[in-house]
Amino acid sequence: MRGILALLLQLQTVWAVQFMNGYSVSWSSKEDVFSVDMKVDMAVAEWFAFGISSNGLMTNSDIVSIRVVGGNVVVEDRMSSSHYVEPKIDQSQSWTLVSQLIHGGELSVTIVRLFDCTVCSEDISIPFGPTNIIWAAGSTDASGIQKHIFKGVAQNVVLREPTTLPPPTVHILYNSLPPYDHFQELQPDFTLYWKIEGEYVHLGLKFPLAYTWAGVGIAEPIAGSMPGGDFLIIRQSGGTWLIEDRYALEFTQPALDEVQDWVAEGVIEANGYLHASIRRKLQTNDGQDRVIKKGRVTILHALGTGLGFLQHDADKRKLGSVTFEERTQFQPEHSETVTLHMGQARPRNDISTTYICRSFRPLELFNGEDAWITAFQFIPDKTANTHHLVLHSCAFDYKPPGFRKNRFQKYEDHATECDSPLGDVTGGCNQALWIWTVGAGTEYLPREAGFLVSDSNPHGIKSLVIEVHYDNPTLEQNIVDNSTLIIHYTRQKRKHDMGMITFGDPSIAAPPIKPGEQHFQFTCPKSCSRKWPHSIRVVGSTLHMHQSGTSSASILHRKNGEIETLA
């Protein structure tokens, strides 16, 4: 028999208990909704159950069971009246199945219920402070979950803690809403309106009253994902509408910001729709907010009903983009273009992620003359598989010690699987010129600047390497990608040369954060920046950490003492 272990871990508001190898439960304590993630090794047992017990015994405990019947996950709310009989199924089922995944013999599910149910006589309210969790796993027979193989008790488990976060903003009904300059239909019957006014953005949301909540968020800019996103939530609670500023560090319900930066301007219920108007500063300098920048912004939006706002309809969660404020799109006179092709790149079908590179010689692309890159435009061929692109500047003739040649030279004639040039000291690549992600459009550089391409100038770009990250989660065969990168350039000298500085840990090679510490901080102090031969003007910032952390920020400290969050 496997050893039984009760191990408690706390990560912010998420707790976990591992009952034994292959059986674990984690949960989040947020507002009025209790969310539970369970992992069960189905190769050992066919059902798993856990319950809240004030005294650690089965009698009078509130239990939820998980089992698979005919390939379907069945979640059952139960109450135990005796230590010796199978817990009875409640007449009122308080638990809701949110997600399920069966992979490699392991079942992963997420279930939710309200902390308190005033009309559920067979349920125990999720208690504040320490309590006991009883658990069991066993085989399924005609009687359901009567026959257990393992069982145990986890003592002094905290399922619910009082929150000290500020309350969300409650609306005041207005008779009219402020006018807007722009609008965009995010989904059928879900429209976003906006207006930029000084340092503020005014947003309007319109959606049917059949939904009890709506959310719009600025996605993590590189992956376009929920973790790292900054969210505005409008939801119904107790007969009123709440406006909430939230952020997400994982694929779960976004947490309330410590500072509520969204301000309600008005809410109207009319003709079956909710019209809500809110505002916030474009730049809040709040570490839990994202800057609302000029140009195209990748956003997430969803509609839903039910408990809190945990569960959205399957077809009502979307990824898109919005241009809140146009970025100056300047193209100099005598602008030309050069087109780079991936040339039948073939992502692998035995793994889900493939990196493929191809290199190009600017000497050939620009006829040996100096040029200044002014804009980038990427046209993906396989949109379902193209995750992101990075364009690198490399020294084509660089020969690292012990190598006969730069290893990226072999990518010149055709697209080849590769490791990322980022942080590779043997590759001769010194900067990432541009990063494209899903939803991004043409990137125009500032009017007075450009990336210098030159074979004669020691600071000019000597070689270009395109790196594309392909996703193939279904392991589809015979994918052939012919994506195209269009580079806009001019031969007219720019006033300033563009450059990219990489700080921190570009190859994600730092060791794990030590116990008791919360973050890494990479700093370029003034003792370093003073050594630069000239001053620089920061025009953008991009963050990169894959899944090694939950949140990151780029912060600029000016010499006058001002602090600005760049990304």
Give the SSE map:
Blueprint: E1 4-11, E2 14-20, E3 23-30, E4 33-41, E5 47-53, E6 62-69, E7 72-79, E8 88-89, E9 96-103, E10 106-114, E11 130-138, E12 148-158, E13 169-170, E14 182-187, E15 190-197, E16 200-208, E17 213-218, E18 230-237, E19 240-247, E20 255-256, E21 263-270, E22 273-281, E23 296-304, E24 312-323, E25 336-341, E26 353-360, H1 362-365, E27 371-379, E28 386-394, E29 416-417, E30 429-437, E31 443-444, E32 449-453, E33 463-471, E34 484-490, E35 496-497, H2 526-529, E36 555-557, E37 563-565
Key structural traits:
567 residues; mainly beta; 6-stranded antiparallel β-sheet; 2 helices; globular
Task: Please give a structural write-up.
This protein has about 575 residues and is an all-beta fold. About 0% of the residues lie in helices and about 45% in strands. The chain has helices at about 360-365, 525-530, and strands at about 5-10, 15-20, 25-30, 35-40, 45-55, 60-70, 70-80, 90, 95-105, 105-115, 130-140, 150-160, 170, 180-185, 190-195, 200-210, 215-220, 230-235, 240-245, 255, 265-270, 275-280, 295-305, 310-325, 335-340, 355-360, 370-380, 385-395, 415, 430-435, 445, 450-455, 465-470, 485-490, 495, 555, 565. The longest helix is centred in the middle third of the chain and has 4 residues, at about 360-365. The radius of gyration is 28 Å and the shape is globular. It starts with a strand and ends with a strand. About 30% of the residues are buried.
